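Tokens for chain A. Residues wanted.
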């Protein structure tokens, strides 16, 4: 208790904003305070914890090990204080909040239009900052507090990362409509063709590659790129094959120039999920966002 008397609780709010945003200006914006005031608070916090807390590495501000260790107990403490003082119930119509969400352009195409419509109608004060990363980077960013929510496939998430299936996906193949016998390609012929691979990081081992590796098979990746929509447009007039999640493809995408057929090898379906750190689990605004995300995916679960 003696130590608590030395601490201005407003400093803890500033500390939380600084550790979450990793940026003095963004923390000041979040707190509705001036940048000099937050810089002064950071100096006080550094003295208090006898640690720099934020250090610049490779042109970006990073948390020290001490700062990283503070995140979880700080989240828990502030959540407890909110409950103690009877924080008002979350109201989406009046709240002002900014969520950082990572998703591919596959998810952006499926989820973002209904999500934005719902936010503008029900929660116009909620802003979104969308980024795209590899699944490994997304999990790290969730762990470090750089993201509020991530959409993707996360079979190997750490225990602290919670997730919820939005819908289940299947793979389909796409090729130029003139490709001979595309509807009845044998596995041998499929492997002999050049392929397009959709990966954020080149040479990443995705579900397709895992299935091939398990069978001791290899395919020739002629083009690896992270852009789902662009991949559809490189196929016409070529001998390239693209194996892709089925919901990324609609009739207007391929009916004139492309054909769609089942892969000639067994590829299991996979769960497309939203993931968050357990620190966010009890946040009413975050819970509302997750419920809203589920509602936006209702049509894809049928």
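Reply:
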């Amino acid at each position: 208790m003696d130590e608590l008397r030395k601490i201005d609780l407003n400093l803890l709010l500033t500390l939380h904003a600084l550790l979450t945003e990793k940026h003095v200006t963004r923390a000041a914006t979040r707190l509705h305070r001036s940048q000099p005031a937050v810089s002064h608070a950071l100096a006080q916090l550094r003295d208090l914890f006898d640690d720099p807390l934020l250090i610049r590495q490779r042109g970006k501000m990073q948390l020290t090990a001490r700062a990283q260790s503070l995140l979880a107990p700080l989240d828990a403490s502030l959540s407890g204080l909110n409950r103690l003082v009877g924080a008002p119930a979350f109201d989406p119509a009046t709240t002002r909040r900014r969520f950082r969400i990572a998703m591919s352009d596959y998810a952006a195409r499926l989820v973002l239009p209904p999500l934005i419509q719902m936010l503008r109608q029900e929660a116009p004060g909620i802003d979104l900052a969308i980024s795209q990363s590899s699944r490994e980077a997304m999990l790290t960013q969730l762990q470090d507090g750089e993201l509020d929510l991530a959409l993707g496939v996360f079979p190997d998430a750490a225990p602290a990362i919670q997730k919820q299936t939005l819908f289940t996906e299947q793979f389909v193949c796409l090729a130029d409509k003139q490709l001979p016998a595309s509807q009845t390609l044998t596995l041998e012929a499929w492997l002999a063709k050049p392929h397009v691979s959709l990966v954020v990081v080149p040479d990443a081992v995705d579900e397709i590659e895992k299935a091939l590796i398990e069978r001791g098979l290899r395919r020739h990746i002629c083009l690896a790129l992270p852009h789902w929509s662009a991949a559809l447009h490189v196929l016409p007039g070529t001998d390239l094959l693209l194996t892709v999640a089925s919901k990324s493809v609609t009739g207007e995408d391929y009916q004139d120039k492309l054909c769609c057929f089942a892969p000639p090898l067994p590829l299991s379906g996979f769960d497309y999920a939203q993931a968050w750190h357990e620190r966010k689990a009890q946040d009413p605004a975050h819970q509302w966002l997750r419920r809203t995300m589920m509602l936006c995916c209702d049509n894809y679960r049928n």
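The two ends are 55 Å apart (CA to CA). The first strand starts at residue 54 and ends at 57.
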